[in-house]
Amino acid sequence: MTDTEEIRLEPCEPGVLTPAELKTLFLFEKLTDEQLTWIAEHGCTVRVAAGNLVIREGDPAEAMFVLLSGTISLTRRVGQDDVVTTRTEQRGVYMGATNAYLRDDGVPRNYMASMRALSDSEFFMLSATDFGWLMREWFPMAIHLLEGLTLGLRNTQAAIGERQRLAALGALSAGLMHELNNPAAAASRATGALRQRVAAMRMKLGKLAAGKVAPDRLTALLELQEEVIERAAKAPALTAMQTADLEDELGDWMEERGVTAPWDVAPVFAQGNIDTECLSQIEARLASPELLDQAIHWIGYALETEQLMSDIEDATGRVSSLVLAAKRYSHLDRAAHQWIDVHPGLDSTLVMLAHKIGDVRVVKDYDRSLPQIPAHPAELNQVWTNLIDNAFQAMGGEGTLTVRTYREDERLVVSIGDTGPGMPPEIRKRVFEPFFTTKPVGEGTGLGLDISYRIVVNGHGGDLTVESQPGDTKFLVRLPISESPAA
């Protein structure tokens, strides 16, 4: 559908439907004869040929339509696509200016969807002005209730939605700050320790020089230091048990040779996977028992300095990774609608929620061959956040979270599963209703899954379903792989 497509309706014929015929429509079946006569006089029938547009989303809502015969479809515009939300041939269904009875609050009264006749169709049509008048005059009490419900629900949903976004932002910010604090504190501790080790190395170098070490021996010592550092950098990582055993061997070796404070130095060499064979080579090349003690300590300081610098590098790299994950999560530097790979968004969401993982085991089963899809990445990240956060809460801090991606025909599927207690059928069929929540008062707004559903279905033309049994609950997000053709 294009914004310039012409709406071609046959001339409206007033008085075609009699009061008795109007009474057969469920919308009017309880009205009095006098009321039915008024509606028959003020309304008219209109015919629309198959394929023609009846009303266009966004146009001023000027009329109320009641289907008499034929098949129609309702569509909503999503980006450049028209997504079919309803297809029906039920006689008596109504659409159009359904809110014409609301008092003028400055909000434009526009059609909320487009309607197209899929077959030759006939409608009973009543102007928005007449429909609004009869509702306010005939049902004043009902109008007060409906206005209160409609306007109150709109304001309540806006307020709670804003509060939920702020609460989610606060939770994510707290989690991010928590995650950033760990590497920042590690870097700070490593920097303090590094300062002490560098000072000790300067002092040890002074002692070596004061000991009148021959230049060739000092050169050999410097060469040994570089060789040991290089060897430590290339050495494979040891298990905790292997490291403990190596510390004992190194401590015994140093103690036998009179190295001062051997049990303080041994862990540094063990951390670098420097064994007694390497120490024996150092001893042989120095050929000086007097120099061995100072050489061991000096090389130990150099090793610890390298280890501390590696710790700082890892910590700052972790900070950079977290900042990048936050940037990807918010997509601050990206266009709203684009072709995306869903996996970075899932990964960044898991990083943002890492503080909630606890003892939960996270399994990622990604199909990396999946193509990019057209989407709003920031909105999809909101969906991933709601679904993953709900999964963590359902499991109570322990269990397995499985995030899986795969292809199903022409759709990409993201499955988010947990091993929580599951949902009974009476809850499962209501989880996507606005304001429905199983959480205690004050802990849930009941909008998370409703918002997620609207983002996936209305915003992306996809589908969001849930499958649940004890120990296995899966939310399945199905997204179209290609742009949907216009309706």
From TrEMBL:
GO-annotated biological processes: phosphorelay signal transduction system
GO molecular function: protein histidine kinase activity
InterPro entries: cNMP-bd_CS, cNMP-bd_dom, cNMP-bd_dom_sf, HATPase_C_sf, HATPase_dom, His_kinase_dom, RmlC-like_jellyroll, Sig_transdc_His_kin-like_C
Catalytic activity: ATP + protein L-histidine = ADP + protein N-phospho-L-histidine
This protein's UniProt keywords: Kinase, Transferase, Two-component regulatory system
Stretches assigned to the Cyclic nucleotide-binding domain: 27-135
Cited CDD domains: CAP_ED
Superkingdom of origin organism: Bacteria
PROSITE patterns xrefs: CNMP_BINDING_1, CNMP_BINDING_3, HIS_KIN
One Pfam family it belongs to: cNMP_binding
Gene3D superfamilies named among the record's database cross-references: 1.10.287.130, Histidine kinase-like ATPase, C-terminal domain, Jelly Rolls
Protein name as annotated: histidine kinase
Upper lineage: Bacteria, Bacillati, Actinomycetota, Actinomycetes, Micromonosporales
